[in-house]
Write a structure and sequence with these properties.
The structure is a homodimer of 558-residue chains.
Chain A lengths: L2 E7 L6 H12 L4 E8 L2 H9 L14 E7 L2 H9 L1 H12 L8 H7 L5 E4 L3 H13 L3 E4 L6 H13 L4 E2 L5 E4 L2 E4 L6 E9 L1 H13 L4 E6 L12 H12 L5 E6 L4 H12 L5 E5 L8 E2 L2 E3 L3 H13 L17 E6 L2 H11 L6 E3 L7 E2 L9 E5 L17 H11 L4 E9 L8 H14 L5 E6 L8 H10 L3 E3 L2 H12 L12 H5 L3 E5 L2 H9 L3 E5 L9 H11 L1
Parallel strand pairs in A: 4-5, 4-22, 5-6, 9-10, 9-11, 11-12, 12-14, 15-18, 15-19, 16-17, 16-18, 19-20, 20-21, 22-23
Antiparallel strand pairs in A: 1-3, 2-3, 7-8, 7-10, 13-14
Helix pairs in contact in A: 1-4, 6-7, 8-11, 9-10, 12-16, 13-14, 14-15
């Protein structure tokens, strides 16, 4: 009958490779059936349990190392556990070949031109290694996961202030000047620059581009949480700016895991300030349009590559920002009779206007507490339930809308008005008769821009061409569909980009890549294989990984 | 100095047109400066306040009629209020021309072939009028808003059981057999059928189609809440089925306000069962792909029309459901090493698989409470933080994935496995070496289908072609991008559509439209203008609109 034995070790550190190797070594011992060597987290304990390897009633903290051996008999199990230290020592001596610096500082002395530091130590130690690297003015590729959001925010602020990139945490991939960091595919070099809060997303797009015969200038991972509300796209914004200035990048592709919508809006502002087409694929974020100025929206990773490839083949003069467009100051106030038109405009403009208020439920759009009063940028559906109790729909009766229009026009904070006019049977027999004088009045004092979305046909009782000319006559800018109005408003109202800190130096991208690697040795080896200069740090956690000792040391230092 | 006076009237009913006319009549009286005649809801009181017409310290309930007059002097204000009843009587006698039935039953006697009833009475009375119409086996176009969600659900269940449509509430528009109901544009007839939980959305698409020279077969509004979780797309499903069978409809376009994601999934299942292309634009719902079988996803209303027009011009044989595809029974289990690939697949498959579980946060996808155990359809990212404490990433170390793969293969409920394999520097030097035997073992007992998303290039250290052939050799279906895998899985795993109740008779659409109108007279007049046969009911609320009396009547009846 099988017998299991186990050990719990506290306050010790081994890297993941060492743990994997120890487990394999133990399992290979005579009469041993199976072995488990894991940090005793809940998930790891559950995985052990599924293999029938979790000892009953075990008491171990997530930080403890748990070693379990199942053998054919008691003696073999005991013997295996007794050999743990031997096995570890043997593995260590196998690894310890060439001389390796034991600190970042020593590594920089050995390779002063190393502009990048790769960090893949366990999450609880990763932030402090990354901080040290930033303080030495190096870019950091932070592969480690299990780093707290607070640490991420703080590290990115530190990085931005120094004009350096903190890529990560949980940053799986990058290609800098042709050299892959972490996980990276070998793809030809070319004119498409990639930015991604998404590891395999970046990898997949780079691969799809390669399959299409297109190449990649640089691929910059920013960490899966970079587009969260808390982090606010800090690294992605830097990367957009950097690739925007990079002469080797003609088209940019931006991919990410599901973003915070307000962060997405800030990134759109940054992307729209670039004089290059930007293909955007933010998972789970509904595209505000197919094309919005120089932004092109893709629905999946393959399409992202296809679009970027197609744009690269185009004349670059066809794209770029609408820099000729005059910017409109002040708030937008949209007074709608059609709920769906209002919603389409909201989904389109929430990507560029903030704060944006409405009396409709749209994610990241603020709900007006009092729909009879506008705040900041506002889109109000005057056909919503609260406006139609004992009152005709605003497509029939313009009274409420006309009054609101006067009110908005009198507000000095208002910079532009937006109305929809829906013709057809059942609607007001002649909207222009009432709306045109009101628009004229609104424009009489200060030429307030007024945009109208006019929905109707030549066969409608009101005749759409006649309505359009009468609205245009008083100075309204008339569009025949909501999407065109969104594009126009986007071009005139979009946010100013918010570039954090000093720009990242282009030379840092252009220089032959040299890096210091702290953590997984395989990442060091793949740098060497790619003929990049690299130094591996023989890293050990402070106080040998003993948390209690670490706390005492911190106190002594403090 | 101006003087205001007001009256509050309880338990009286006037329709919205009458209230608007009374307000205008009062404002036109000598020495009267302004007048307000509104139901005393919070919003209406706020609007009055903004016009300086809200009396101080007024006590009125939302059901009360509030009449306010501001005049140059006390006498004029008083005189105006005294004339209210006169003015109402005059308006009533102006309206009372021809004979009009006072009940639905009388209206049906007058026009027995009326297959449709338009209801636009105030929300609090609308449900009971709609119910009566359904009980007489008529389709109902329910324009009224302020109808409760509970009433909507109950009415739609009643309608579905009788093979009738309950379009609405808050249904602004429809075009049935060439005749517009409610608000509708005059557009040419043709091969595109529209379904929309969105009034102006439907109107806009019909107009854009007309502008493109394309015509509309029917346009069926379903009410803005039809795609909510509670209503579950009840009417939209009926309409999809109906247009699917309609010989005059070659292409269907489906638009809606932001849908509940699970409802969206059910509608996709219904749409995919049709042998026609369906263009889909669900506001705020990120498209799972650009094309998914016979579904085509548009990002805005204009594009919806453009796509539908283009599909109409195509050979219809090119579209239609993938009826030749074999359906796979059992659950999908996806074991991923790449978080973004997992997320792309989740966003693609949540549209067709339910319930779907994952260890990633994706709206309408259930979060696994224990990521080490799958439930129903599951996609698990084995590179997530909880799996990598003290453990190498699954792109490097396959141990956890191999074990999970064996576990899933042994589960008789599992019908198909999905894996990603990401090549490149930093990753495992030869994934096929470990994965191929495991896939072969999983397929040895029951030929379990295994799908692999393989991301890599010909230049990667592992060589993608070699990896592909070794995985294909053991029977894996290999795709080189996530989108293609999603399309494949969708075709083999999609839900069976859930058609509610008996089908709606095609003849009801094909017959010349005849309707009974209860509520806004302008809707009746526009039917007549369009040469449809129609009867206007001279509707009055039960008990003259006196809520207390109504409650007593209900008790006596009960």
């Amino acid at each position: 009958m099988s017998v299991s034995q186990h050990q719990v070790r506290s306050g010790v550190y081994f890297d993941s490779v060492m743990l994997m190797q120890l487990q394999r070594d133990l399992a290979a011992l005579p009469e041993v059936e199976a072995a488990g060597v894991v940090m005793a987290t809940q998930t790891n304990q559950a995985l052990l349990a599924q293999s029938g390897l979790l000892p009953d009633g075990i008491e171990a903290r997530p930080d403890d190392l748990l070693i379990v051996v199942r053998a054919e008999n008691e003696g073999a199990a005991e013997e295996a556990l007794n050999r743990v230290d031997d096995l570890l020592t043997r593995r260590r001596s196998l690894a310890a070949g060439e001389y390796r610096p034991r600190s970042l500082e020593a590594a920089f002395k050995q390779l002063p031109e190393a502009g990048w530091v790769l960090v893949s130590v366990p999450g609880k130690y990763a932030a402090s290694v990354a901080r040290e690297a930033l303080e030495h003015d190096r870019h950091v590729f932070l592969y480690s996961d299990n780093v707290s959001l607070e640490d991420e925010v703080a590290l990115k602020a530190l990085a931005a202030g120094r004009g350096k990139l903190l890529m990560g945490p949980d940053c799986g991939t990058a290609i800098v000047n042709g050299v892959g960091l972490g996980f990276a595919n070998r793809v030809r070099r070319g004119g498409v620059g990639l930015v991604g809060a998404s590891g395999t997303g970046l990898q997949a797009v780079s691969v799809h581009l390669h399959q299409l015969g297109v190449g990649v200038s640089h691929a910059l991972g920013t960490g899966g949480r970079d587009l969260s509300a808390e982090v606010g796209g800090a690294t992605t914004t830097q990367c957009l700016d950097l690739l925007g200035r990079d002469p080797g990048t003609q088209v940019i592709a931006l991919v990410s895991k599901p973003p915070d919508p307000r962060t997405a809006a800030r990134l759109f502002a940054a992307a729209q300030a670039l004089e290059k087409p930007v293909v955007v694929n933010l998972l789970g974020y509904p595209p505000p349009a197919s094309v919005l100025g120089n932004l092109y929206f893709a629905t999946n990773l393959k399409e992202t590559a296809t679009l970027a490839g197609a744009l690269l083949a185009e004349d670059p003069a066809d794209s770029g920002p609408l820099s000729g467009e005059e910017s409109i100051q002040g708030f937008l106030r949209g007074l709608f009779s059609g709920g769906t038109l209002a919603a389409e405009v909201l989904f389109g403009l929430r990507a560029v206007l903030t704060p944006l208020y409405a009396n409709l439920h749209v994610p990241s759009v603020e709900l007006l507490d009092d729909p009879t009063r506008s705040r900041a940028h506002t889109i109000v559906d005057l056909g919503a339930d609260e406006f139609t109790v004992g009152r005709l729909h605003p497509m029939i009766d313009h009274e409420v809308r006309l009054r609101r229009l006067r009110q908005e026009a009198a507000d000095p904070e208002v910079g532009i008005l937006l109305l929809d006019v829906v013709l057809g049977d059942g609607a007001h027999p002649d909207p222009a008769e009432e709306l045109a004088p009101a628009i004229a009045a609104a424009r009489s004092d200060r030429e307030l821009p007024v945009v109208v979305i006019l929905i109707g046909t030549d066969q409608d009782p009101q005749n759409v061409d006649d309505q359009e000319s009468r609205l245009a006559e008083v100075g309204a800018k008339v569009f025949r569909d909501a999407g065109s109005a969104v594009a126009y408003l986007n071009a005139h109202l979009r946010l100013n980009p918010d570039w954090p800190g000093p720009p990242v130096a282009l030379e840092d991208l252009a220089a032959p890549l040299a890096a210091v690697n702290v953590g997984l040795e395989s990442f060091y080896l793949s740098l060497v294989q790619q003929e990049a200069r690299a130094v591996q740090v023989n890293w050990r956690p402070p106080a040998g990984g003993d948390d209690k000792m670490l706390a005492i040391l911190a106190k002594l230092k403090g």
